[in-house]
Design a protein that fits this description.
Layout lengths: L1 H13 L4 E11 L17 E4 L7 E4 L2 E7 L8 E6 L2 H7 L2 E7 L1
Parallel strand pairs: 1-5, 2-4
Antiparallel strand pairs: 1-6, 2-5, 3-4, 3-6
Length: 103
């Protein structure tokens, strides 16, 4: 019986649907605020701030992989703030509406 439960739980985990939506994407740098994200880590490329997904959630924005590691604090349900290394990169990114998938 325990083996059956293990198999069923694996099937449930791998059968979870991927869902997508279009989100408003903005940018911030690794040095803004204290440089520490809500998950306690230093801000770094590959992470995003998001209020509507749990910390640690893996998402894909236009095919690029990111991890939710911070909060924005605006309470919206379609806003993602992407971490960039430099101010110039963040400014060049600006504000974009991009497709996001949660795996």
């Amino acid at each position: 019986m325990p083996k059956l439960l293990a198999i069923l739980s694996l099937l449930f985990v791998f059968a979870m649907p991927v869902y997508g939506m279009q989100v408003r994407c903005t940018a911030y740098t690794t040095t803004e605020n204290t440089g520490i994200m809500a998950n306690g880590m230093e801000a770094q490329v590959g992470y995003v701030a998001c209020d509507f997904l749990p910390l640690g959630t893996v998402i894909y924005i236009d095919g690029a992989r990111y991890i939710v590691g911070d909060r924005i604090g605006d309470g919206t349900n379609n806003h993602i703030d992407i971490v960039f290394n430099s101010y110039d990169e963040a400014i060049n990114f600006g504000v974009q509406y991009l497709d996001m998938e949660v795996a």
